[in-house]
Predict the structure of D-alanyl-D-alanine dipeptidase.
Amino acid sequence: MTQSRLLHITPETHHVQIDLVYATDRNFTGKPIYRAQHCLLLEPAEAALRRAVAIARSIGMTLKIFDAYRPPQAQKVLWDFLPDPTFIAELGRGSNHSRGTAIDLTLVDDAGRELDMGTGFDAMVVESEHFHDGLPEHVQRNRTLLLGVMHGAGFTHIKSEWWHYELPGSRELALIDNEDSGPLRLM
């Protein structure tokens, strides 16, 4: 995968819902990290997102995005708040969000309701694991549905977060610094 440019993701251009929680206080830090809601992905991730949108639409679902590109400076804010490598990529390693190749999202049904995934987005608990034992059947079905949509589009998942998907081979790419990200600025 070669480095390319960040592209804007909007409801109008991508047929998704966007609720970038890090631009609000509705995230695990309790404070906004971004000043504005600008959803960005690297070109190959944006192409995979388009495939995921088409797959979701074919089953009557819509994708709702909670986070996409995340500047390294924002990653540092998250790490400083919760230095737990189970849920937050260590600064030396860098997050694939900071490479523009990771996305946090869920599925929304045709009535506009988020599917029940058993925990909220950003719940830094063991129950957030994709295949956590003891989840109700409907929750595991919903998580597996999201997994199928995203894997079908070319993304892979990480064990600890049902909402996190990324392109394979992302670690080969360099981090994209905030100065290169245009309108996405930290608080």
About this structure: The CA atoms of residues 5 and 36 lie 20 Å apart.
